[in-house]
Amino acid sequence: MVTPPYLKKGDTLAIVSSARKITERELEPAIELVSSWGLKVLLGETIGATENQFAGNDALRLQDLQEQIDNPEIKAIWCARGGYGTVRIIDKLDFTAFTRSPKWILGYSDVTTLHSHIHNLGFETLHAFMAGEVKSKKQTLLDELKQTLFGKKQSISYTSNDKLNRIGKATGKLVGGNLSILYSLCGSASALETEGAILFIEDLDEYLYHVDRMMQNLKRNGMLAKLAGLVVGGMNDMNDNTISFGKTAKEIIREAVADYNYPVCFNFPAGHVNENKTLILGRRSELIVTNKNVSLEFGT
């Protein structure tokens, strides 16, 4: 996998929205943060644009993202907000200039579409909180994002004795993102390649039976059998029917991979959680799950 050039002071970062609408005022904390890093900020035309729930119509969102991809002065593109919409434009994006001059793509949730598509082209991306979320994030998370963008080696560790964890050690390329998006990409040119990889998944506000449906779909598509390891982030605010499904989201996931022997961990601090740590997707990494701790170390 190709690592885009790390940022340095004086570089320009663009903020765009490929999905839900957002105002410039809402992005003031992000603009201030990026400027404090010594970077220049360019706001795309989608910022402040609106068409129903979207940051402008498909044509505008496509044009804005394409311009930032093609602009050689832009060294990173930070998605402002998730929601829904990136899949509506992904097949019309031209990554010719990107492959010649790659740049960091930042975001999560709906941005999983971009992550997965770009990984199939052979490039790393950053699974990170959105530009519109800066105000709600504590300083350590902001610092970690900066350090990653500027090339400082990163690792993540946390205490965990979850009984559903499966102890072990794995090395492989870290891939993944939002489970619902990964599920929706199956069978497309953006479908994720998982063989030999450490798969990261997370989700929010889904019905439990649908979590099971998605995991069964990934299993039937062969996306779970040959993993090196599985990392499960936030699986929050799940819903159930009047007649209970009978399992939690974590239990559903653990059951779906019960036939395999790789390490599995839950409650990883990434996804739709306050502690949404930056992940270098596409980077060869080492996952270690013990009785008491989980660690993920990104290679160089």
UniProtKB/TrEMBL annotation:
<dbReference type="InterPro" id="IPR027461">
    <property type="entry name" value="Carboxypeptidase_A_C_sf"/>
</dbReference>
<keyword id="KW-0720">Serine protease</keyword>
<dbReference type="InterPro" id="IPR029062">
    <property type="entry name" value="Class_I_gatase-like"/>
</dbReference>
<feature type="domain" description="LD-carboxypeptidase C-terminal">
    <location>
        <begin position="171"/>
        <end position="287"/>
    </location>
</feature>
<keyword id="KW-0121">Carboxypeptidase</keyword>
<keyword id="KW-0378">Hydrolase</keyword>
<dbReference type="InterPro" id="IPR003507">
    <property type="entry name" value="S66_fam"/>
</dbReference>
<feature type="domain" description="LD-carboxypeptidase N-terminal">
    <location>
        <begin position="14"/>
        <end position="128"/>
    </location>
</feature>
<protein>
    <submittedName>
        <fullName>LD-carboxypeptidase</fullName>
    </submittedName>
</protein>
<dbReference type="InterPro" id="IPR040449">
    <property type="entry name" value="Peptidase_S66_N"/>
</dbReference>
<keyword id="KW-0645">Protease</keyword>
<dbReference type="InterPro" id="IPR027478">
    <property type="entry name" value="LdcA_N"/>
</dbReference>
<comment type="similarity">
    <text>Belongs to the peptidase S66 family.</text>
</comment>
<dbReference type="Pfam" id="PF02016">
    <property type="entry name" value="Peptidase_S66"/>
</dbReference>
<dbReference type="Pfam" id="PF17676">
    <property type="entry name" value="Peptidase_S66C"/>
</dbReference>
<dbReference type="InterPro" id="IPR040921">
    <property type="entry name" value="Peptidase_S66C"/>
</dbReference>
